[in-house]
Amino acid sequence: MKFTHKLCAAALVAAFGAAAAFPTGASAAENPLEWSGKGTINFSEDDGEDKPVDPTDPTKPVDPENPIVNPPVNPAKGPLKVIAVTDLNFGNNKVTPATGNGWEYTAAAAEVEYKDGVKVASPNFVQFKDTRADNQPNKHTLTAKATTFTNTDKNELKSAQLKFNNIKLVNGADQNQVNAAGVPATQTVETDGTTPTTFVTQDAADKGFGQFILQFGDVADNTAGDSVKLWVPSAGNKLSTNSGYSSTITWTIADAR
Predict the structure, then answer these.
(1) What is the per-residue pLDDT across 21-59, written as a single tens digit (0 to 9) for each?
(2) In what order do the strands lie in the sheet with 110-114?
(3) Residue 11, SS3?
(4) Domain ranges within the chain, ordered by starting residue
(5) N-terminal to C-terminal alpha carbon distance within the chain
């Protein structure tokens, strides 16, 4: 019995010695001159402050000391968002006989105003973004609808239409994200307050990420002040000089996955 006990103890010593010589997980292929660590990164939803891209040069970084203050920025947060929209100013027009069964008026070019008070001519535009980063395609639509042009006397410009021309979609950071096939060159919005009109259909799986400018005309080719028109049919309408008419144009970006 004593012999057996001594033999077992010797076997345990030999086994322990082998374990000490070769730690768990060790192998002859390991290099004492190299060792590895890990790099990690996480992402969270884009919900920070948005700044309009300069429509006069979309590739130019926004100056944090002198940002654009007009048109104002939508204060809501989220990765799918309409950021800023220019107002459409059709000016003060003389009442004249109708031509071609109606009247047509042209919106002036927009003015972008910076914090320091400087104003620069710009095409009328809509800025929006889709910065969703959830491993799904950035598919979306951008639509507009407009209420009836009405003055303070409740007179309406019945069946009037907003006609947009020279439409261009720009992504200053990466133009490859623009699905040109989903953007018509011209579009018409009925001013009935209920009918949405689609301006952007982004249905390409490999496009649609980032911040975009949907612009109407361009300062460079002198179309900024000639690309949005208001058509008022003469049938059923009598123009009034008592007060100005106004309409609300609402732009909506929606998920299209």
Answers:
(1) 445 444 557 887 677 667 766 767 676 667 777 777 887
(2) 68-70, 110-114, 119-122
(3) helix
(4) 76-255
(5) 79
